[in-house]
Specification:
Layout (H helix, E strand, L loop, with lengths): L11 E7 L5 E11 L5 E10 L6 E9 L6
Antiparallel strand pairs: 1-2, 2-3, 3-4
């Protein structure tokens, strides 16, 4: 099976966190990455805050290109 590659993917994505009513809690920058598993995609890790009370939330996410693992 050939490893799938997305040549049109950008080097990074901006992820915006907002409520269903549109209130923005924060943004994270997800950098392109090749994971130890061999998959490719994006990775982001950081904190966002509740704008009403300032309480922080830790966020971590992997965005994996389906079929990118060899």
């Amino acid at each position: 099976m050939t490893k799938k590659v997305d040549d049109d993917a950008p080097p990074a994505l901006i992820i915006e966190f907002k409520t269903s009513s549109g209130e923005v809690w924060g943004t994270l920058n997800a950098q392109g990455r090749e994971f130890k598993t061999g998959s490719t995609g994006f990775y982001a890790n950081g904190k966002i805050k509740n704008p009403k009370n300032g309480m922080p939330y830790q966020v971590g996410t992997n965005i994996i290109l389906v079929g990118s693992k060899e």
